[in-house]
Amino acid sequence: MLHMVYRIELTDEAERYPQAFWTWLQEREQWFYDGLDTVLATRWTVRTIGERVHTLEHTVTFADEAAWGQYRRAVSQRSRDPVWEKRRTEQTRWWRLLDAALLSDPPVSLGFDRTRKAAADS
Predict the structure, then answer these.
(1) What's 11's DSSP letter?
(2) How far apart are CA 63 and CA 61, in angstroms?
(3) How far is Cα 27 from Cα 111, in angstroms, rounded to an integer?
(4) Helix or strand or coil: residue 107?
(5) What is the dihedral of CA 20, 22, 28, 30, to 10 degrees?
(6) pTM for the full predicted model
(7) Tell me, what's the pLDDT at 38?
(8) Distances in Å between the alpha carbon of 37 and those of 10, 11, 32, 63, 115?
(9) What contacts 26, CB < 8 A, 6 or more positions away?
(10) By C-alpha distance, which of 2, 35, 29, 37 is closest to 94?
């Protein structure tokens, strides 16, 4: 698997109006990823310890580099639509991208996830 990880700093407006920000983000995620079928999963986490407190980390998972490339081409194509691009760039009201990284899974099976069992048991 391939994981694109974005580190995101919230704007002052997002900090001032957290409910509006989180509502916007839920709607944006549905809108942005609709039809981008090479995206296997997304995950959002809040970083509360580190250089920048309360930054977001957004992970987008793909099967492989080819799927990531298809995603990049699809987003590039969509960005040519002025209505789509205007909506995409409204994100600057809420956040600033600090950096991005492309991570891949190791060649052997590592890690565990107790949350899956806990979710299945409940």
Answers:
(1) P
(2) 7
(3) 32
(4) coil
(5) -130
(6) 0.87
(7) 97
(8) 28, 30, 11, 11, 25
(9) none
(10) 29
